[in-house]
Specification:
The chain has 976 residues and is mainly beta. Helix content is 9%, strand content 45%. The radius of gyration is 31 Å and the shape is globular. The relative contact order is 0.12.
Length: 976
């Protein structure tokens, strides 16, 4: 059975019987059942495997209940009726799935909820036992997780068609700063629904906000969550600030852990990416239930080796083999000399620079260096995670719950060597070589990797998320008082980097035995001198959050369509963030500096209310209206630093016929600025630049570039609405379909276009809003006198043609429209069950106004933005203890508009295969399950992309493809 808890519209007043009558809404068609009497949860799992039906139930409803024996050729309704006979449970068809609920006799018929042990709570609503009316929810249950063959939460979520890999994750760090990737300094992984940004996707763990990572605390690092401890993942693909507050603009990802697990489960997993990258995973899960309580303990260890760029042909700065340009760096070993007259000379290989003569130099050439090929594409990651959850009934109506998730992630990666700079060598250096005989200072482009060792990014992230609550049941009402604590601390260091101050001293040293030599291959330098110039730079982040909440929900009055139900509450949250830089790069002695300008602790006070009104139901249905539900929600949030915001939401669901429902939602959402976005211009960088300008007679213009954080940043705002159709016709057994049209109008988006500053004047149509032409004398005087202003070009105010604003601020507006769909069909085949399906996302438009005052441009299907099409198909077959599933993944082609002549990028199709066989097992399913997963079955390389960044280059796009290649994993799961 796929134990999925998804958005199901349930009203407690719905009339329920022991089983829905087959003529009303049940599937038809007989199958052979052979299910022994056993734990009800296990029996339902076997029933679902045979019937193809999706059965949903709160875990606690099943605890302590046993099924009846079911044998023979029966209809699905008859089999389920026999299975549930005497259990006291009823079943209801909701949006194509069968939902189990507690209830018996007259109480059930009257719509009473007194007999409900635990109502279902799903993402997108605060009302128990109800789904988010009108809003779409995607659910990945435990069975879906196992069939996916993935080994991490980030892999699982990135396979979703609604997910976009742009943003903070381990493949984008070092490859781009777009889409917020620059906020990640520790190779964490975020979730970015619809490409609206990771900070616009709210991630929850069992309904609570975890501690955040990244610069400013901007994203939840899902790499810290153990996949083996997850029961299901619920993804609400709709705005939900009226329910959850800030950040729920693109949607909500709620990760539910296995809090009701019983028994013991041991997991072993090994894998490799074509032999180039090994993976090991070990997990242990324990669950124990007694009369008044339940305890779950889990531990998981994961280790994955680094993936070297040398093992992937597309990980290079030289794109000529793919028909592209050569973007290799000018920093190499041996290096390149630039003489006083600007002429370049390549230093020959095969010599250590101690006896180099001008005659050996190669005039007019340069030694290129491919820094990418010498680096790692993915870091080595090692993760320890532990989880504990306790539930204890203090009385028959008062329950205490507590949980803690703690994790530590260590990483190490051969980096890109981004801190190289030109070495200026005076004539006093004992190894000095003058190519043209002028006896003047020369400059050398030199890579220090042979001297200092490969540049390394290394660090550690520690996170903890805890929550506790007391819940009092008073009839059909529940009152909950709870609190949560989260903290994430990280350190990141880049080592084996030349310290500029100590290097300058070593270059100026006149002693041949201790001076530093940049004219050879890095083998002849004094080890003590090399050690002296070795520097580093690092960052320390500390994010902490406390929260408290009072929540109440229950039934108000009985309406003809069912019980009117409400939920309301108040919440308080306190957040703080600190950042320090440890600099041993630019000064002779290390220094530690706090990031100045950060606001103090943030206090957030909020109140919300939600109401569910069943206008029509089984007791008052009319022709064309089997059921009609309306929901209204609203939330007020008051931020101590950015003010107050109010957000409403409306949802409607109309079931015209059994199994056919139309739904819709409308609401507003917002995102509060992150801590670093409120720093202001105190740590800005205002500098003179020379940039391309087609309108200038010289082809260039002298400008002042403004970089850093702008003043007065305010929250982002969005308006979202959806319309959808769900179909699960009783007459076609096993068929389910849903389709959702969505519209997101996103305003005052916080960001910058600094990465495109070289295009500001050549594309005034796009960037005119951040260009000030012919600035006034007063404005120039202001910037020239600003404390952070630098003037490397030595310009006078009258020499400045324009001011380019690349600061982070409320910059752009965007409107996105699209269609999500999911089709599924399950039936019998060859004595087993076959499951076919196709889910996908098609984005019609992403109209982005990049800067104020410029026209909106459709950017869907372009570089750095989501593709128009993403599809994931599935075909599975199971029989007995065997299951096989084949997935097909498709990412549509798109336009790379970054090169001078835009280029088309091909689509990318990959296949994943998952096989599983269960051995042994008893009534509690103790036994062994072996699994084989092959991701990217045919080892399909990502399509070629001319991907040049401001620091390097690649021949693929890490935002739309991954570099792993074919990944093979073996997994053993032992239940005991």
């Amino acid at each position: 059975m796929t134990m999925k808890f998804f958005a199901a519209v349930l009203a407690s007043g719905v009339s329920a019987t022991a089983l829905y009558a087959p003529s009303a809404c049940a599937q038809t068609g007989e199958q052979t059942y052979n299910i022994e009497a056993q734990r009800l949860s296990d029996a339902l799992r076997k029933y679902s495997d045979i019937s193809g039906r999706e059965v949903i139930a709160a875990s606690s409803l099943l605890e302590g209940r046993r099924s009846n024996r079911v044998r023979g050729r029966l209809s699905p309704d008859a089999a389920l009726s026999r299975l549930l006979s005497g259990t006291g449970l009823t079943i209801e068809l909701v949006e194509g799935a069968w939902v189990l609920r507690a209830g018996n006799g007259d109480a059930a018929e009257a719509g009473s909820t007194d007999g409900v042990n635990e109502a279902i709570v799903v993402t997108g609503t605060r009302i128990r036992g109800a789904g988010p009316v009108g809003s779409p929810v995607v659910t990945l249950g435990r069975a879906d997780i196992e069939k996916s063959g993935t080994g991490s939460v980030q892999q699982l979520l990135q396979a979703l068609p609604q997910s976009f890999a742009g943003g903070p994750n381990e493949t984008t760090l070092g490859a781009t700063t777009r889409n917020g990737a620059g906020t990640d300094g520790t190779y964490g992984s975020s979730v970015n629904l619809r490409g609206l940004g990771p900070s616009s996707t709210l991630v929850l763990i069992d309904g609570s906000r975890p501690a955040l990572g990244g610069l400013g605390g901007v994203f939840a690092d899902v790499s810290l969550i153990p996949l083996g401890a997850i029961d299901r993942v619920e993804i609400l693909t709709d705005g939900a600030s009226a329910i959850y507050g800030a950040d729920a603009v693109a949607g909500v990802v709620n990760i539910r852990l296995r809090n009701q697990f019983e028994g013991a489960e041991t997991l072993f997993r090994v894998g490799t990416a074509d032999g180039d990258m090994g993976e090991v995973q070990i997990g242990q899960l324990f669950g124990r239930k007694w009369d008044r309580g339940h305890l779950v303990l889990a531990y998981q260890f994961s280790q994955r080796d680094a993936l070297a760029a040398a093992d992937r042909d597309f990980a290079t700065e030289d794109l000529r083999p793919f028909g592209g340009p050569d973007y290799r760096s000018l920093f190499a070993v041996p290096g390149t000399i630039t003489a006083a007259n600007g002429q370049t000379f390549a230093i020959p290989a095969g010599q250590n620079g101690t006896a180099l003569t001008p005659g050996q130099l190669v005039a007019g050439t340069r030694n290129p260096g491919d820094r990418r090929a010498a680096s790692d594409l993915l870091p080595r990651q090692r993760i320890h995670s532990a989880y504990a959850a306790l539930e204890f009934d203090l009385t028959d109506s008062l329950t205490f719950r507590a949980s803690t998730l703690a994790a530590q992630r260590d990483y190490r990666k051969v980096a890109l060597n981004q801190y190289l700079s030109i070495v200026r060598v005076p004539v006093t250096n004992p190894f000095y070589v003058d190519p043209i005989g002028t006896r003047q200072q020369v400059s050398v482009n030199y890579n220090f990797a042979n001297d200092l060792g490969a540049p390394i990014d290394t660090g550690r992230v520690r996170g903890i998320s805890s929550s506790a609550s007391l819940e009092q049941a008073i009839g059909a009402w529940r009152i909950q008082l709870g609190g949560a604590y989260g903290r994430q601390k990280s350190r990141s260091d880049s080592i084996n980097i030349p310290n500029r101050a100590r290097l300058a001293a070593a270059i100026a040293d006149t002693n041949r035995a201790t001076a530093f030599n940049v004219f050879g291959n890095g083998t002849a330098n004094n080890p003590a001198t090399t050690a002296a110039i070795r520097g580093s730079i690092g960052s320390r982040d500390d994010y902490e959050s406390w929260s408290a909440a009072l929540r109440v929900d229950g039934s108000l009055i009985r309406l003809p369509g069912g019980d009117m139900r409400v939920a309301f509450g108040a919440e308080y949250r306190r957040e703080r963030y600190e950042n320090f830089t440890v600099n041993d790069l630019s000064r002779a002695t290390p220094s530690t500096t706090a990031l100045t300008g950060l606001p103090g602790p943030r206090h957030v006070r909020s109140a919300y209310a939600e109401i569910l009104v069943p206008l029509f139901g089984p007791d008052n249905s009319v022709a064309g209206i089997e059921r009609l539900d309306l929901s209204l929600a609203g939330r007020i949030e008051d931020y101590s630093d950015v003010g107050r915001t109010t957000n409403p939401k409306l949802g409607l669901r109309w079931e015209a016929l059994p199994g056919i429902a139309v739904r819709g939602s409308y609401g507003t959402s917002f995102r509060a600025p992150a801590f670093d976005e409120l720093i202001g211009p105190a740590v800005s960088n205002y500098t003179t630049l020379r940039v391309p300008d087609p309108s200038s007679p010289t082809g260039t213009a002298n400008v002042i570039g403004l970089f850093g954080y702008g003043p007065g940043i305010k929250p982002e705002k969005a308006t979202t609405w959806t319309v959808g159709l769900d179909v699960a016709p009783p007459s076609i057994r096993g068929l389910k379909a849903s389709v959702t049209y969505y519209d997101v109008d996103y305003r005052d988006r916080i960001g910058s276009v600094s990465e495109d500053y070289l295009r500001f004047l050549s594309r005034r149509d796009l960037f005119g809003g951040v260009v000030t032409e012919n600035p006034s004398a007063e404005l120039l005087a202001y910037y020239f006198s600003f404390p952070t202003f630098t003037n490397p070009l030595g310009l006078a105010p009258g020499d400045v043609d324009a001011i380019l604003d690349g600061q982070v601020r409320n910059l752009s507006a965007m409107r996105q429209t699209g269609l999500d769909f999911d089709l599924g069909y399950a039936t019998e085949l060859a004595g087993g069950q076959i499951d076919l399906g196709l889910s996908g996302s098609h984005i019609f438009r992403i109209d982005r106004q990049l800067t104020p005052g410029t026209p909106a441009v459709d950017v869907v299907g372009t570089f750095a933005n989501p593709a128009k099409w993403r599809l994931r198909g599935r075909a599975g077959w199971s029989r007995g203890g065997f299951a096989a599933t084949l997935f097909a993944n498709y990412v549509g082609g798109y336009l790379n508009q970054i090169p001078a002549v835009p280029e088309r990028v091909s689509s990318w199709t990959t296949f994943d295969l998952s096989l599983a066989q269960r051995f042994g097992g008893d009534d509690n399913e103790r036994g062994l399950q072996l699994g084989l997963s092959i991701l990217n079955l045919f080892d399909r390389d990502p399509p070629y992309v001319n991907n040049r960044t401001n620091t390097s280059a690649l021949a693929y796009d890490p935002e739309k493809a991954n570099p792993l290649g074919r990944t093979i994993s073996l997994q053993a799961t032992i239940r005991w």
